[in-house]
C-alpha cells in the first residue's frame, strides 16, 4: 500500500496509480476512518506521481513540509457510498494527480468494486461531466504547509518541499472551480446557498458546543487531524438528529451519498469549537437531506472548516 | 498488506508472517488508530496462517463468524512505544499464531524499526522470558463469535468457522496464563492488584459517565469496535488528568509503555457506560503511573472491559 523508503518513483514513469485494495477493519471503524484511508491514498498517489516522498518532505530550509488537506469531496451514487464500504470489501482504485503549481496539488481517486472498474484514464472530464455508474470519486486539494512556531497550530505557512515535481501532471481545466468553491464557501460560511430550490428547512438552525478531544482529534504530529473534522461535524449532526427524536441506530445507518469539506484553519489542544448545522430536507423525496455545517473557534469566531453532507434514506 | 480474494494461503506453507510496513497518517490519527492497525495485522496473520479468510469466514450454518478480540496486550520498551510510532516510520513486522483449539487463536506480533529486527522465529519464550530491546510486542487472544440475533450485540455466541486450521500451529506453553489473566481480571474488575508494592494512589477513585458515541465507537457491522475501547478508556483517563490540573497537551504527550485490555461484552447503540479509573503512581519514579480502568454498562453494572495502562514521563 505504501512506499517503504525514501526513493521516489521516477517522475513521469507512471501516468496514474492503480491498485486493488481490501477494505480492512481499521478502515471502517468509526465514521471518519474511511476518509482517513482516502487521505492516505492521496499521500500515496502524490508520493508515486510527484517525485517526492510525502512522508519525509522538507522545505529548502529543512523544516518538515506537511501535505495538508484544503478541500475534500467525496461523491458516490446509489450503488456505492463511502459509508457503504465495509470490511472485507475489495475495490479497484485509480488515482490521478493534477498540476496546480508548486504549492498545492489536486488528486482524484476513482473507487469501484473489484472487477467493475470501467478502465481507461481517469480524467477531469469524467469526473465533471461523465461520472461512471458504480464508481465513488474522491477529490482532494492539498497544500504544502509548515509550522511557523513548533508549539502552535494557529499559523501554518504555505511552503513547497524540495523535489516536488508537478509540471508533468495533467492540468485541470479552467472550468474546474475547486479553489473558487472553497473560497466562496469560506466567504459564505457554508457550501449550500440559502435557499436551495426544492429543499426546505428540516429543523431550526442548530448550534453545538464542542471541546476538541485530545483522545481522538489530533494526528501523530499534534495537528487537528483532517479526518477528525468529519467526526466533529458528525457529532453535531448526531446531536441535531437526537433533538429531532431520531435514534442513534438511525444515525449509524444513515446513508451519505456525498460530502464536501473545506479546511481553513487548525486549532490548539484546548480549543472549544462552535458548530452550526443547517439541515434541509427535499420537499418531495423522504430521506433526501442536506446538512450544511460550519465549524468555528468559539470566542474568536475564526472559521476552521465548512462541510456539506448529502444524505439519503437508509438502504 | 491484505489478501485480496477468497483463496487462503495453503495451511502450513508459511511458518510465520514477515512484512515491512510504512506507518501512514491513518494509522496514527487519534489515540486508538495504532491499536486498530495492530488488530488488522492479527486478522491478516490468521488469514495467512490458518487457512481461512477472516474477512469472509462463515459458521457451518452459514452465518458470518467474526474474529473478536478477547484479550489484547501491547508492551514496548524505553525506545519503542505504541504512541511513539508516527507517520512515516517504517517498521519490520513478524507475526506468529499459536494453537488454542478450534474456537480461538493467539497471535503475537513483534514490531521493530526497519533494519533493527533481531531475526529468528518469534516464540512464546522470547515474549515471556527474553523480549528483545527495541521491540514492541502485541499479543491478541481472539475468539470466533456470531450474533444470536441480527439486531442485538448483547449476546454473542462462540463459534468456529469452516476451514479454520489450527493444529499445525505451535502450542503455547502451559505457563502462558493469558486466559487465566483475563478471567482473573474479570473476577477482580481490573488487572492491577490492590495494593501494588511500590505504588500509591495518585488520585481518589474516579468515576466517569460515558454515552456510547454513534459517530466514533461502532465498526462497519454495528458492533462496538474493539479499538474504540482504547479511546473510551482514554476519555475517562483524560478527564481524570484534567481533574488533577494536568493539561490536554500533557495528555497528548503521555507515553504509554504498555497496555492490557480484556473484553467481556459488547453493547447496543444507546448504551450508557460507567467507567472507573484507579490511578497509581510510583513512590519514587516521577511520571511512572498505572491506570486500572473498568468499563461497565450503567444501570446493569455488566462488565464490558477492563484495561491497565503503564504510563511513563513524556520524552
Automatic annotation (TrEMBL), chains A, B:
Pfam families: LnmK_N_HDF
Keyword Transport on entry: no
Superkingdom of origin organism: Bacteria
Every LnmK N-terminal domain range: 18-193
InterPro entries per UniProt: HotDog_dom_sf, LnmK-like_bifun_acyl/decarbox, LnmK_N_HDF
Transmembrane segments: 223-244
Keywords: Membrane, Transmembrane, Transmembrane helix
Signal peptide positions (record): none
NCBIfam families recorded: LnmK_bifunc
Protein name: LnmK N-terminal domain-containing protein
Species this protein is from: Actinoplanes missouriensis (strain ATCC 14538 / DSM 43046 / CBS 188.64 / JCM 3121 / NBRC 102363 / NCIMB 12654 / NRRL B-3342 / UNCC 431)
Organism classification: Bacteria, Bacillati, Actinomycetota, Actinomycetes, Micromonosporales
Amino acid at each position: 500500500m505504501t512506499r517503504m523508503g525514501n526513493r521516489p518513483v521516477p517522475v513521469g514513469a507512471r501516468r496514474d496509480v492503480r491498485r486493488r485494495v481490501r477494505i480492512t477493519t481499521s478502515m471502517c471503524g468509526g465514521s471518519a476512518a474511511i476518509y482517513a484511508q482516502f487521505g492516505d491514498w492521496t499521500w500515496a498517489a502524490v508520493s508515486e506521481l510527484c517525485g517526492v516522498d510525502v512522508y519525509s518532505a522538507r522545505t529548502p530550509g529543512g523544516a518538515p513540509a506537511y501535505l495538508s488537506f484544503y478541500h475534500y469531496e467525496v461523491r458516490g451514487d446509489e450503488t456505492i457510498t463511502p459509508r457503504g464500504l465495509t470490511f472485507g470489501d475489495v475495490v479497484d482504485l485509480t488515482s490521478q494527480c493534477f498540476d496546480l503549481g508548486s504549492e498545492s496539488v489536486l488528486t482524484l481517486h476513482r473507487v469501484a468494486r473489484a472487477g467493475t472498474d470501467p478502465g481507461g484514464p481517469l480524467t477531469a472530464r469524467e469526473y465533471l461531466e461523465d461520472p461512471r455508474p458504480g464508481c465513488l470519486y474522491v477529490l482532494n486539494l492539498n497544500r504544502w504547509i509548515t509550522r511557523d512556531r513548533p508549539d502552535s497550530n494557529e499559523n501554518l505557512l504555505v511552503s513547497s518541499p524540495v523535489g516536488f515535481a508537478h509540471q508533468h501532471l495533467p492540468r485541470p481545466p479552467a472550468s474546474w472551480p475547486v479553489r473558487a468553491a472553497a473560497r466562496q464557501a469560506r466567504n459564505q460560511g457554508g457550501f449550500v446557498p440559502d435557499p436551495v430550490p426544492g429543499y426546505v428547512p428540516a429543523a431550526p438552525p442548530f448550534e453545538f458546543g464542542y471541546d476538541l478531544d485530545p483522545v481522538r482529534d489530533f494526528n501523530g504530529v499534534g495537528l487537528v487531524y483532517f479526518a477528525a473534522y468529519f467526526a466533529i461535524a458528525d457529532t453535531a449532526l448526531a446531536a441535531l438528529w437526537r433533538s429531532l427524536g431520531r435514534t442513534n441506530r438511525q444515525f449509524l445507518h444513515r446513508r451519505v451519498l456525498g460530502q464536501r469539506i473545506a479546511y481553513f484553519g487548525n486549532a490548539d489542544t484546548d480549543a472549544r469549537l462552535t458548530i452550526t448545522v443547517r439541515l434541509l430536507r427535499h420537499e418531495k423525496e423522504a430521506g433526501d437531506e442536506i446538512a450544511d455545517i460550519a465549524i468555528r473557534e468559539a470566542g474568536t469566531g475564526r472559521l476552521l472548516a465548512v462541510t456539506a453532507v448529502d444524505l439519503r434514506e437508509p438502504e
